[in-house]
């Protein structure tokens, strides 16, 4: 049998299926919460006289959206660097 890093191919397939199911469930819950937020924003900005307030809310949404993506990208970059340096040392 072919073994990679102490795991059999069957356990690797099981791990990938488990991770797929886990992320699918997470995305399902995130989708439910985002619909509620959109309704709240729409209700707060229904008045046409609040153009500046609508721009401020849109800027706030973009600001809040960018920060987590940057953090995840930084963590991914550092993990990539660690793995690359670890593979070179072996």
Write structural notes for this entry:
It is a single chain. The protein is mostly helical and 90 residues long. The chain folds into two domains: 1-44; 50-90. 83% of the residues lie in helices and 0% in strands. It contains two helices and no strands. The chain is elongated and about 65 Å long. The mean pLDDT is 75.
Please describe the structure with a list of short key phrases separated by commas or semicolons.
90 residues, mainly alpha, 2 helices, 0% strand
Topology overview:
Layout: H1 9-44, H2 51-89
Molecular shape: elongated
Our Rg estimate from Cα atoms comes to 22 Å
Overall tally of domains: 2
Order of helices and strands: HH
Give the helix level as a range of percent. over 70%
Largest sheet: none
- SSE-based structural type: mainly alpha
Uncertain parts: none
Distance between termini? 24 Å
Average of per-residue pLDDT values:
75
* Contiguous helical run count: 2
Strand content: under 5%
Quaternary organization: single chain
Describe this structure in a few short sentences:
The chain is mostly helical and 90 residues long.
């Amino acid at each position: 049998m072919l073994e990679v890093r102490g795991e059999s191919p069957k356990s690797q397939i099981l791990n990938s299926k488990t991770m797929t199911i886990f992320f699918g469930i997470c995305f399902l819950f995130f989708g439910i919460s985002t619909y509620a937020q959109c309704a709240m924003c729409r209700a707060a900005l229904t008045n046409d006289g609040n153009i500046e307030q609508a721009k401020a809310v849109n800027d706030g949404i973009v600001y809040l959206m960018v920060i987590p993506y940057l953090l995840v990208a930084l963590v991914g970059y550092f993990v990539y660097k660690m793995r690359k340096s670890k593979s070179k040392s072996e």
